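dumping these here so i dont lose them again. two proteins, back to back, each one seq then C-alpha cells. dont judge the mess
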Amino acid sequence: MTSKRRRLAAVVISAAITMAGLTAAAPAAPADPADAVRTVSYHGYRVQVPADWRVVDLEQHPTACIRFDTPAVYLGTAGAEPDCPAGLKGRTEGLHIEPLTRMTSATARELKDAKSRNSEIRLAVEDAGVLVTAAHTTATERHVRQVLGTARISDDAKPKKAIPSAPLATPQAVGPQPGDFTGKGFDACTAPSQGAMDAWLAGSPYRAVGVYISGGWRACAQPNLTASWVSNQTAKGWRLIPLDVGLQAPCTSFSSRMSSDPGTARSQGANAANGSISAAQSLGIPAGSALYSDIEGYASNASCKAAVLSYLSGWTEALHAGGYLSGVYSSASSGIRDAASEYDNPAYTRVDHIHFAWWNGAADTNTGSYVPANMWANHQRIHQYMGEVTETYGGVSINIDRNYLDVGAGSPPTPSKYWVDTFADAPVFASPTSTSQTGTLYKATNYVYCKAWGREIRDGAGNYNHWWLKTDPDVGPANQYVSAYYLSRWG
C-alpha cells in the first residue's frame, strides 16, 4: 500500500448552498502560489495556504462567522449561532475543513475531476476523515485548485469512509415562496439554526426570512441551508425570500461585474437564473416561487442602466421559462429607480417583484419618489427599511436587515401560442443556454409559446440570433427550445 503522504484521491460531494448578505470590501487578488505559504493541519490533513490567509479554529471560536469576503481557513464544525454581519458582500477564496460525516450522493473522483457548483468545490477526504469546502470566484478558482493540490495526509490521520446514503426525495417547501404574505421579515448573512429560528418564531415580530440560495458572490458559508431546513421552516409558518447574489452593475468597483454590452449582460442574467432555479429545486423551493436577483447600489448612467436592465430581462425570461417569478433587490435610488423608469419599455422584460433598500425606518412598501405608486402595485413589493441591526429573541442574537413585505403568490405569465415558419429542420435543446441537442423541429409552420434570451447561433454569412423559443418538437420531449435563427416568419 502506498504511503499516506501522497496526493489525495477524494470523494466529491455535491456543493453546499451558501448565502451571503452585504458590506463593501473589494476582494483581494488571488495570491501567487510562489508567494510565502504556511502549512495548516487538521486531523492529519495538511495543506499549504498563503501565509496571509487567516486561520480560525471553530472549536476555540464557536461564534466565528465562516466568511469568504477575505481569504481564510476555518477548522472544525460551524457553531450553531455564528456572529455574521448582515451586510457582508463579495467573495475571494478560502477553505473550510471539518470532520467528515455520513454524506449523500458521493462520487469518487480525483481532484482534477472535481466540479465547482455555486462557486464551491467540496471534497470528502476519506484518508483523513475530513470534508474540505473550497470557496472561490471565477478569478480565484485556479489558485484554489492549486492550494488543494498541495494537500498531504500525515501518518496520524484517522481514515473514515463517506458512506453514500440511498437517494431520498427532496423535502419540499410548503407552497411557493414567499407566497401571499403581508408583514415583517428579516434577512441575515447565513440561515439561522433550527434553534434560532424556533426562538425567533416564538418571540419576534418576524415571519419571513431572506435566504441567499445561489450566486457566485456570496460571502458567508451556509451550513444550515438544506432542503430539510426549508421544509421545516415553511411547515412552521415561516415565509422565505430566496435571493441570488451574483454579477453586479458594470459601473461599480466590485470585482464581479456583468458585461457593459447589453446582449452579453442579458445572456449572463439568463445563466444566473438557470443556476438559481437549480439551487431552488435542490432546496425544495417549487416553481411559482419568486427568486430575487441582488444587484447592489450603483451610480447610474445610460450604459450602466442598459446593462442592468438587460441582465434583469434575461433573468426574468429564464425564470418565467422555468415556471418561477422574478424579483430584483437593489437600492431604491439606483436599480429600482432604473427599472421603474423603463417600466413599459418593450425592449426590457419587467421583473415581477421589487425588493428595495431604503433605510428610512418605515415598515411599509411606500417607495416615495423613487417609484410611482401604480407600478408593482399588486402585492409585488418588499421594503428593506433598516439594515445591519442586532436583535435578540429567546436568548438568540442575530445581526439582520429588517424587511416589510406585501407580496402575492401570483404566477408567471401564461405563454401565448403563436405560429412561425422554420426554413430548415432545427435542433432543439432543453434550455436557451444548453449545447446538448434533445430533438428536432422540422421545416414547416410550427407553434411556439415562450421567448427567452440565450446563447448565440451564427452562420458563416454573419447572420445570428440570441433569441430562443419554447416549442414542442417533432422529435424529442415537449417543452424544448429552438433558436429564432431558424425562423423565416414570425407569428
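---- next one ----
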Amino acid sequence: MKDKYINIILFFLILIVPPLSAIERGEDWGITPLPVVAYTPETAFLFGFSGLAWYQPPENTLTNMYMFEMVYTTKKQLALRVGLEHYALEEKLKVETEVSYSLFPDSFWAIGPDAPDCSQEEYTPLKLELRQSLPYRIFPAFHLGPVFRITRHKLDDMEEGGILYKGITGSEGGRNLGLGYCFIYDTRDSNIYPGKGTIVSCSNIYFSEWGGLGEYSYQCWEVDLRKYISLSKKSQLALRGTAFLNSGSHIPFQELPVLGGPFLMRGYYQGRYRDKNTFSLQGEYRFPMIGRLRGVLFGSAGAVASAIEKFSDSPVRLAGGTGLRFAVNKEENLNLRLDSAYSAEGFKIYFGVLEAF
C-alpha cells in the first residue's frame, strides 16, 4: 500500500514540474535534459538524469537522435545507457548503437506461461551490453544490414534454495555473443512521432561460442510490425505486433523474451512472464488535448510459450491504460510520456521520453 501512495505522489509531481526551462534549441538541433525521480520496492528511491539530443541537417528528412541515461538509487545501485540513431550516406545508412551497464536488483519468476506468484525470488544481475546494427537502404523503403550483440552477465545475491541458486542455464553468468542480419521496410513519415506509415523490422541472430568469445549457442528470430494511421490532422491510431522466437537448448534465462515493461505490455512487471517464444499485440489511440498536452488510450495482449505449437495452450495476458504527453518540441513532436497502466498485476506508472512505440 505504501508503494502505491508513493507512485501516486510522483504521478502528480511529474505533472506539475515544468521541464522546458532547461531546454536548448537551435534551428535544426535541440537538447532536452530531464531529471529522473522514481520509487520501486526493489530500489527504494531512484534519482538520475536523462538527456536527449536531436539534429536534423537541412538536407535530411530524418532526425538523428542521441540519448543518455544515468540513475542511482538509495541502495547504491547504478544504471547507465548511451544510444544513438544516426543517418549517413544521404540517409541510406542507419547506424543504431546502444551501450548499457546495470547493477540492479530484479525479480525472477519460474519460466513459462503459468509461473506462479510464489515462485518469485530476488537477485542482483550485473549486465554490460553492446548492441549494433547497420541497415543500408538497398531499395526505396527497404533496408538490409548486419547485427552484432555482445553481453556480459553476472549474478549476485541469489536467494539460497531458489531456482537460480540451484542452477539453470544463465545463472552462472557468462558471455553471450551474437552475429546476424536485419531486414527493415520503413514508410513512416517521421522516426520520432509517426503520423502515418508502416515499419517492419525482422532480425535473425546466431549466438555461438565463436572460438571461445561466447558461452551460449542458440538462434533468435525477432519480428516487430508497426502501423500508424492518421485519423485527423492531430490524432493517430498506432498498432504494433511482435514475435520473439528462439531455437536451441542452451539459452541463458536473461536472454529469454519477456512480457511487460514500459514499451511492451505496460501494466506487467518486466520479466513477469518469460519463455523461449513470445507474441504481443498493442494498440494506441493518440489525440490532442490543450496546448502542448496530448492524451492516449492503449491496450495490449500477449502470451509466452516454450514452443510455437504450444501457444494455443498458453493463457493470453491483457493490459491497458491511459496516458498524457507533453510536447517539449512541437515541431518534432518530441514528447515527455506519462502512462498509467492496469493489468492482473495491478496499477503501474511509467514516465519517459518518446513514445512506447
